[in-house]
Amino acid sequence: MGDMDDTPDGARHLDFYFLQTALEVIDLRSFSNLWFWIALAVLWSTASHWVIGVPFDMVRRAAKGHAQSLEDMQVLAQVQARRLVFIADTTGLITTALTFFLITMLALLGFLYEIEFAQALLLLFAPMMVVGWLSLRAARRVPGLDAADLGNLLAAHRRKVQGVGVVSIFVTSMWGMWVNLNVNVLGG
Questions:
Q1: Contact 116, 29 (CB under 8 A)
Q2: pLDDT tens across 64-100, in order?
Q3: Among 132, 131, 112, 127, residue whose Cα is nearest residue 40
Q4: What is the CA radius of gyration of the chain?
Q5: SS3 at position 144
Q6: pTM for the whole thing?
Q7: What is the rounded distance in angstroms from the CA atom of residue 8 to the CA atom of residue 118?
Q8: Strand stretches in 32-135, DSSP E
């Protein structure tokens, strides 16, 4: 019976060549992958646009005196704040424990075992823990605020999120450049 593989050697070589070429073009390392940087930009753009679940363009329109936006901002902020506080009060301990477990696991895998993908995930999600904490703090202050104070709270919260984002993007880009500069180009 002999060899059970009916694939000719030339076809097997072509498949290997195609796979090798595809992996060189795609570059599966995190910090040299364009998709990682796109995800980082989208993450921070979204985090700074949705302030406690309220789109910031609505906050701006409300600040300019647009009556419908003012009413929508107040209703949306109240609903989202109650939702965040309820989730935190109901699952706070479990969520906190799982979050710190995940962050610790990513930190160990990333920096002790030098797994680049874990480093990238840690640099994406650790700052989001800070944003989540800031959002919960702000959400607890929402009930009972009048429209002007609510607008000021949302604007101040957005500035804090953007500050965390600037620091996070800077640290991530510096670390990413460091990793990319230290990669052995020849693979040896």
A1: yes
A2: 999 999 999 999 999 999 999 999 999 989 999 999 9
A3: 127
A4: 24
A5: coil
A6: 0.81
A7: 39
A8: 50-51, 54-55
